[in-house]
Amino acid sequence: MLLNDMRQFFRTTACLCLSALLCVQPIAYAQQDLPDIGTAAAGTLTIAQELEYGDAYMRILRSTSPIISDPVMDEYITSLGHQLVASANDVKTPFHFHLIRDRSVNAFAFFGGYVVANTGLFLHANNESQLASVFAHEISHITQRHLARHMEDQARRTPLTIAALVGSLLLAIASPEAGIAAVNATTAGSMQASINYTRSNEQEADRFGIATLARAGFDPEGMPDFFGQLADQYRYASTPPPMLLSHPLPKARLSEARDRAGRYPRVNPPISVSFHLAKARVIARYASIDSAQSLDWFERRLQKASPMIKPTLEYGQALVYMDSGKISQAESILTRLLASDPYNNFYLDAVSDLYIHKKQYDSAINLLKKGLERKPGNQVLTINYANVLIEANRNKEAINILQRYTHSHPDETVGWSLLANANRKAANEPEQLAAEGEIFALRANWNKAISNYTRASQLAELGSLQQARYDARIDQLRIEQQRFAALQ
């Protein structure tokens, strides 16, 4: 099935379910107050089916949204997310955390353990507990299987298939703005029933979310603090951010959230340097502002920053300098930062890029080798190491590393992209086509993926193991394409 067909499928019956997500009201309830009804949807959708739907939707999201392929940011949000998952209840699926390059404030979760956040969250969160509160809320939606339970409720009241209900729900969580128009097409009775059902889910999600925050060592006040900030900032805005469309902020919700968070011991976690480095990286590279504005942002905050935060702001300055071609300014900062914290992946990543800019490939290779000796197999360092090898025209070495990497991380486009580039530079067209084919498959473009592998098979030696491998992958891709189409 073509990607456009799948998009149409996800929009088929949106008007029946979209209004539910416009009424998300995070209100904290202590864990003992409500029964655990997180597995009530077992009769509607199995965990295996949820994983299948989640994989399908993630492929569509990669093709339609600016998903960030940044190993440093991926490592940070994955570490944060898994710290929360380790303290969550009823975890039944693996979890995957992704960032979308978008300045608006929004986050959503969907089947298969996928949590997706906009980079705009970093622009508004003041500390890691506030950011973690958003992730904890979305994690709770998944662990309590709220999408499946909502489908069960809808299926009892409508003649729609599970597939159609999945499509409308996924569209709702990803595009709350689209729900505004859908509400106008929804009958009052159906909309109110959907609203009431969603409110109970939101109460449960926040109850579990605040409990998860507390158990994971974060400040449980992070949730009401963050949403309170948003309420104050956008109180008189004509167009609120997407998160406020799907998570309205009435006074009652905020007061109840503060009351519930207050039932847990107030903690004061140590300042997370990694959070502030990630925030600085977002400001420097993903906030869609020019270099002069970015430098002004960092400079103003440096004037009043604490000694612990100051290096993170200087790191952001160095990224802006490097990205705008001011290599000497970047180097003076990064050399000092790396000396103060020689195994920090944020710094190692930036300094390896600096060496590439200066064409000092051996320096970068030696730096990353030392890092990998201390952190064997680390994804950030491995990707940087392979990238430096490609820049140094040591493509065979890079290919060996990336073949192992993509085998271990088949769902990461950055590894396949580097592998395609290395094979291109090595004049190995069949392997280049195969790597590019994997990227097409990860974006649900099955026809192009199969076409790439078909061309690779034609170029391979007749009867070779390489050709047999390509042909076997073509068969696999056709099966995946059929499974994808069957979701309709």
TrEMBL record:
Coiled coil: none annotated. Residues 1-30 form the signal peptide. Its EC number is 3.4.-.-. It is found in: Periplasm. InterPro entries: Mito/Outer_Membr_Metalloprot, Peptidase_M48, Protease_BepA, TPR-like_helical_dom_sf. This is Putative beta-barrel assembly-enhancing protease. Residues 74-260 form the Peptidase M48 domain.
